């Protein structure tokens, strides 16, 4: 697939890098070209429809909102994840050696009015070194009406926030919610085809989708240092395809062939 036909490639400016270090996030406008957005929407919805139904208030947020490893089911997502403009941007933020750490659809379909409280992405999968990058690519226009993300600029400087969960909470995969000052939050409103990049320690949340006619569909891709380990899993290397540079872990090198 000719990625240049689907995605807009560019490097981050020095001003953007300074802003990222200060505020912990960046919005990249029109990272998907119109044809790339259309193909990604089509492929993602085909995958979603094979495994998901319409919103059901009796189901968990995992059942209603997430579809993991979407790059296995959508060729455009796979190319975007492994060869798209986010790879170079991740390298500019993290360093020269990068691997893909997570790929999933994070959908808040119309009718899903469930909010998701304040949290850090590194709270759900603590990786070290602590420079993992979350990227959210909007497949719909996302605003306050249909459940856009909110974040607190600069909150990444607080570092890892420890939240105690008992064994029952861990087994039930309950939400890891932290306390935060809502008055400091700003909405991350985006047009379809935009991408939001933020630090693994960024405090963020989303409200419910209050729109009666609009979905809020997002592609969630996470990148990490090629040698990042899972702190919660006996410090084993996080498996993921090496997309730039090199790694000291043979397991990660071998994982590169897993598309």
From TrEMBL:
Domain of life from the UniProt record: Bacteria
Cofactor(s) named in the record: Fe(2+)
Name of the featured protein: Phytanoyl-CoA dioxygenase
UniProt key word Oxidoreductase: yes
Keywords annotated in UniProt: Dioxygenase, Oxidoreductase
Pfam family, one: PhyH
Species for this entry: Pedobacter heparinus (strain ATCC 13125 / DSM 2366 / CIP 104194 / JCM 7457 / NBRC 12017 / NCIMB 9290 / NRRL B-14731 / HIM 762-3)
Matching PANTHER family: ECTOINE DIOXYGENASE, PHYTANOYL-COA DIOXYGENASE DOMAIN CONTAINING 1
Gene Ontology MF annotations: 2-oxoglutarate-dependent dioxygenase activity; iron ion binding
Gene3D superfamilies on file: q2cbj1_9rhob like domain (2.60.120.620)
